[in-house]
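User: Can you help me understand a structure? I only have the sequence.
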Amino acid sequence: MYHRISIVGGSGSGKSTLANLLSKELNLPAIHLDGINFKSNWVEVDKKERDKIISEKSSEENWIIDGNYNKTLKERFDRADLIIWLDYSTFDQLKGIFKRYLKMRHAERPEIPGCRERLDFTFIKYVATYNKQKRPLIVELLNTIPQDKVLIFKKQKDLNQWLKNFTHNENILDDLK
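Assistant: Let's start by predicting it. Here is the structure, written out as tokens:
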């Protein structure tokens, strides 16, 4: 069984949702990197401090870590038993952030205490350019990792089917409805 799972992908791809589902099923702690990176009201912590905390967390024996944060990505990939990449299209990522916004509008994000869901032009632009600007690093790093510990999903439906098979729980997705 897996003890360290790294989940990466663009904003709106469902990394935190997947981390929470797997955490519940596997009884592993979910660590949301956005929750480390942001203080209340979306104030970013010092990058060196953030990276230090992420390194400490990834050195632990059991975890599911969701998030990218490129500076510590290789370290997490090297430590992970399983890497799940939600390699969704830009359209699907944008759809994901809009869907989340409509569902959580102005509510506090559970994985980022003190931060209310928001949607602004800067964030939309980040998501719209993610695949072009950030995706190449993930591809490059994954090419250095044994492929038997990497799962790549291009569509939500494929991830959903894998989840049902992996957990042997046909109802695992009920909480998402």
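Now, to help you interpret it: The two ends are 28 Å apart (CA to CA). The chain has a mean pLDDT of 94. Let me know which part you'd like to focus on.
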